[in-house]
Design goal:
It is a single chain. By secondary structure, this protein is of the alpha+beta class. The chain has one domain.
């Protein structure tokens, strides 16, 4: 199965709390605070699209940093299973793991992973998390396959050279 690097193409739409997260990483609860991993660098995520069929996508640490660069509490929405909007959830912390900023002990992630801590004020949502009905986090955002960008850049270079050649032929 082929792997493709993807890069962000716009802002984050939402963070979804889901039963089956693509990264298979669990949520860690401490009272009404829930910490989870949204993305790990180079972690393969299975996708299927018409042009590519079954394949994996991944993001680099640089792309993850780019994605969360302008994230703010006011701009982020939360939902369950990518559909039902959730109220009573606040973003408490958003960080990239480093040697100095590690994840909670029972969350095994790579350095460079993006973690968030959420305050869950909605009792029903918190109970669903504690009962294991909602197990992880998923991201709603637009991405572009880096390979597609490279193809567009290559085409642009070819067209530029054709244009340059055509101009030089007119002069001669």
């Amino acid at each position: 199965m082929k792997d493709y690097e993807v890069i962000p193409d716009g802002p984050i739409s939402a963070i979804s709390i889901v039963k089956s997260p693509a990264n298979r990483l669990p949520l860690v609860c401490s009272g009404d605070l829930v910490t989870g991993c949204i993305l790990e660098p180079f972690e393969k995520i299975l996708r299927v699209t018409k042009p590519r069929g079954f394949h994996n996508v991944f993001l680099t640490e640089e792309s993850i940093r780019q994605l969360i660069g302008d994230l703010s509490q006011s701009s982020i929405e939360f939902n369950a299973e990518h559909s039902k909007e959730l109220k009573g959830i606040k973003l408490v912390e958003s960080y990239i793991t480093t040697d100095k900023k590690l994840p909670p002990d029972n969350l095994d992630v790579k350095l460079g992973s993006w973690l968030v801590t959420l305050k869950i004020e909605d009792v029903e949502t918190l109970e669903r998390i504690k009962k294991g009905l909602l197990k992880g986090l998923s991201l709603e955002a637009e991405f572009i396959y880096k390979e597609d960008i490279n193809e567009v850049n290559d085409l642009y270079k070819i067209l530029k050279n054709i244009n340059k050649y055509a101009k030089s032929e007119r002069i001669a």
